[in-house]
Amino acid sequence: xxxxxxxxxxxxxxxxxxxxxxxxxxxxxxxxxxxxxxxxxxxxxx
Length: 46
Fold this sequence. Notes:
Blueprint: H1 11-29, H2 34-45
Helix pairs in contact: 1-2
């Protein structure tokens, strides 16, 4: 069986992957660390 990256069978999983990938692309354009931005967002929510 072939491994498929970012495969999910749930709509919410697809939304999550789409949003994270969009965030990563935005951070690349702005020369920011995607990991730092995601950690800051999660930290502020918790």
